[in-house]
Design goal:
mainly alpha; 0% strand; globular
């Protein structure tokens, strides 16, 4: 339904279909959500609202009644909430959406339990320890659920723990690193995680081809979040080096990272979103280079920067649009081969 809707809108933008016939085309192709799909969407939204309200309610309940609740009762209530979520999870085993929501609730409650332990016994002197342990103890739930929302939450916790750790240990770290180069750690950390996720995805695809099974997690949201963080970190390193005057090594590292992104996600892994991130990163870095290495006045610098943004955006948009068509044709070819039927190229145009 979504592909038909996008195709019809593309025909309308290209002038092949007038706007007067747009509503009729959507109705004929059943591209408009029906009553059952709206009901499923509302049920999904209410499910996540219920899980989020339950988890946050437990946390705020302790915060408001901290002095009145005995110590053992605090631990018993949080552990009871986790056990209740686990029982409901076992009861609804096999229903992906419900089990993912329950695992997310158990992950949030795990963080609440760790915070309760640290607040009661004063075990965590540094904030980064709470988030690091939270990410570690949440890892089994992420592995069991194999859901993008669980992995994204785990990734955010890990990056937050690393950020807080660097703030606490900045004197020891900056004896070896400059303040501008701390982003290298975030780039290395998220790039390593991204490589592990891609290798796991490649292994999973090989297993599915041999077993003829359906993909368990077809989206790529986790990889895309890691790519956003890694590209932002390396772009920040390159931009800071322009004004620091030591941009030789940093700029070389950025160029190599950008080339690797463009080659890998153009030829090995088809991901238009990450390629768009690479183009956007290049526009930012090239604009910063112009601003830092031109001797014109402010009007001249802004003129050159504006021209660079317009030119790079136009070229990137044209390139990405052509890649989108190629990726669609390649996906249609893969689906046709998997289904054992001939490829209908005219249907894809």
């Amino acid at each position: 339904m979504l592909e038909n809707r996008q195709r019809i809108l593309h025909w309308t933008e290209s002038g092949l279909l007038d706007e007067a016939s747009l509503a009729q085309a959507i109705e004929i192709t059943n591209s408009q959500p029906n009553q059952r799909q709206w009901l499923e969407f509302i049920q999904l939204g209410l499910l996540w609202l219920a899980v989020g309200s339950f988890s946050c309610g437990v946390i705020f309940f302790f915060a408001y009644n901290w002095q009145e609740i005995p110590r053992l009762a605090k631990f018993a209530l949080v552990e009871l909430a986790i056990c209740l979520s686990a029982i409901i999870y076992v009861r609804h085993w096999g229903r992906k959406i419900i089990t993912t929501a329950l695992l997310m609730s158990m992950s949030v409650l795990t963080g609440a339990l760790l915070a309760l332990v640290g607040q009661t016994f004063q075990t965590g002197a540094d904030p980064w320890q709470l988030f690091a342990l939270w990410a570690v103890f949440m890892l089994p739930w992420s592995l069991i659920g194999r859901s993008s929302i669980l992995w994204i939450f785990n990734i955010l916790l890990s990056n937050l723990a690393l950020f807080l750790y660097l703030e606490v240990n900045q004197n020891l770290l900056w004896a070896l690193w400059s303040a501008e180069s701390v982003s290298w750690l975030f780039f290395a950390f998220n790039s390593t995680l991204l490589a592990l996720f891609e290798l796991q995805r490649f292994y999973q695809r090989i297993v599915q081809q041999h077993t003829q099974s359906e993909p368990t997690n077809p989206n790529r949201y986790s990889q895309q979040v890691l790519a956003v963080t890694a590209l932002w970190s390396i772009s920040f390193v390159a931009i800071k080096s322009f004004w620091a005057g030591t941009f030789n090594l940093e700029l070389l590292g950025y160029i190599l990272a950008l080339i690797a992104v463009l080659l890998i996600y153009r030829y090995l892994i088809r991901d238009l979103f990450i390629l768009t991130l690479g183009c956007l990163s290049f526009i930012f870095v090239s604009s910063a280079f112009i601003l830092s290495h031109t001797n014109y006045d402010e009007a001249g610098q802004f003129l050159l920067t504006g021209l660079n943004i317009v030119l790079c955006s136009a070229l990137a948009g044209k390139w990405l649009k052509s890649l989108s068509l190629l990726f669609q044709q390649a996906s249609a070819a893969d689906n046709s081969i998997d289904e054992g039927r001939p490829i209908d190229w005219e249907e894809d145009q």
